[in-house]
Amino acid sequence: MKTALNNRKSGIFAWKLSAFGLTVMLLFGNQTTVNAQEHQHQHHDHHKATPEPKGYVSMQANYTIPEVMLVESDGKEKLLSKTVDPNKPVMLNFIFTTCTAICPSMSATFAQVAQKMDRGGETVQLVSISVDPEQDTPTKLKEYAKKFEAGSMWRLFTGTTANSILTQRAFDAYRGDKMNHVPLTFIRGANSVRWARIEGIASADELIKEYRALASK
Length: 217
Description:
By secondary structure, the protein is an alpha+beta fold. It contains six helices and eight strands.
């Protein structure tokens, strides 16, 4: 009798344990499924919400083109402040012809800007100034311009080291020597002292967008 009773109790205990296990499995199994679905949903939302980062930073600044004599790729010495027409918009950068890192990209972008704006009937002065004037003779600048198919809208300058440094300092672009050269582009609207300082690598479309935003103010 006691044996039968014990067997009955054991059976009830086993059933309760089995039922408890099923409950635990269902509870935590469902929770795992829910957590996995929530994680997948959150990951999907996070991926959608992440903005595409720009490759540059734009800020406003006031600069004055210095009264320095530079030499254009045609070999003629010119006063930069008079050569860059204050009544016309301008995009300006600093490059050197033997650069193999950022300069080719920046120069290719200037060439694209010239082509796109010319097709759109817009005019802007594109100015590139060498940070390595000892090596960048007018002849080398002319070859460099030909390499990038620079049109009449784009002008390249060299000159003395002192005047190149003065110009770089005027735009807070001087970094000691050409090996510390950083990607900078400066955009100014017509009849304005306000410049957009573009730090980093921007595409032709991005530079044109920055120019139009500045010109509209």
